[in-house]
């Protein structure tokens, strides 16, 4: 399927299967996104050229979507975190998603099944900022029927052990 047609339909080309070396590379980069090609190659027992080619293929295939820092939100001044569940008007997901993407502190947005439609993770400066976000920004959206806010008291990032 041509790239233009794939972009228009929103479908993705199927990813190539991952082998154990690919998975080892992904685990390593998840725990240290700044690892050098040389150290990746040594740890997974392949040549530097092979490690470089594999990482580039994983990027080209969309398996690796980027590199970034894992941030301790509290130490970064975001002392209030919450999951917010939303019930939305049927068929309004794309419009709601676009609006939620613009919210300050939005960290993760998911369309889900069950008792609610959307799960949103937010980090804010404090409870007052969280209250303002929910009451004046999210609940003011015409497509949002109801919300429920679940405060996070403590969290553990499992990102490193994903594969």
Explain this structure:
- By secondary structure, the chain is α+β, with helices and mostly antiparallel strands.
- The chain is 37% helix and 18% strand.
- The protein has 6 helices and 4 strands, in the order H-H-H-H-E-H-E-E-H-E.
- It has helices at 3-9, 20-31, 37-44, 48-60, 93-101, 127-138; strands at 80-88, 106-111, 118-124, 144-151.
- It has a 4-stranded antiparallel sheet with strand order 2-3-1-4.
- Helix 3 (37-44) packs across helix 4 (48-60).
- 14% of the residues are buried.
- Mean pLDDT is 89; it is low at 1-9.
Could you list some keywords that capture this structure?
alpha+beta; disordered N terminus
The total beta strand count reads 4
Rg calculated over all Cα atoms: 20 Å
| Global outline | elongated
Q: What's the order of the H and E elements? A: HHHHEHEEHE
Strand order in space, largest sheet: 2-3-1-4
Structural class: alpha+beta
Instruction: Quote the distance from N terminus to C terminus.
Output: 30 Å
Q: Compute the average pLDDT.
A: 89
């Amino acid at each position: 399927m041509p790239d233009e047609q794939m972009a228009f339909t929103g479908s993705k080309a199927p990813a190539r299967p991952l082998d154990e070396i690919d998975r080892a590379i992904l685990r390593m980069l998840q725990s240290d996104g700044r690892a050098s090609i040389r150290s990746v190659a040594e740890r997974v027992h392949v040549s530097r050229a092979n490690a470089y080619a594999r990482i580039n293929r994983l990027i080209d295939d969309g398996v690796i979507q980027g590199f970034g820092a894992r941030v301790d939100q509290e130490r970064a001044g975001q002392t209030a975190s919450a999951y917010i569940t939303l019930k939305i008007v049927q068929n309004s997901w794309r419009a709601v998603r676009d609006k939620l993407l613009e919210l300050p502190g939005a960290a993760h947005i998911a369309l889900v099944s069950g008792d609610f439609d959307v799960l949103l993770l937010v980090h804010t400066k404090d409870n007052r900022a969280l209250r303002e976000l929910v009451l004046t920004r999210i609940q003011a959206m015409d497509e949002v029927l109801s919300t429920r806010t679940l405060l996070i008291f403590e969290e553990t990032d499992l990102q490193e052990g994903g594969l």
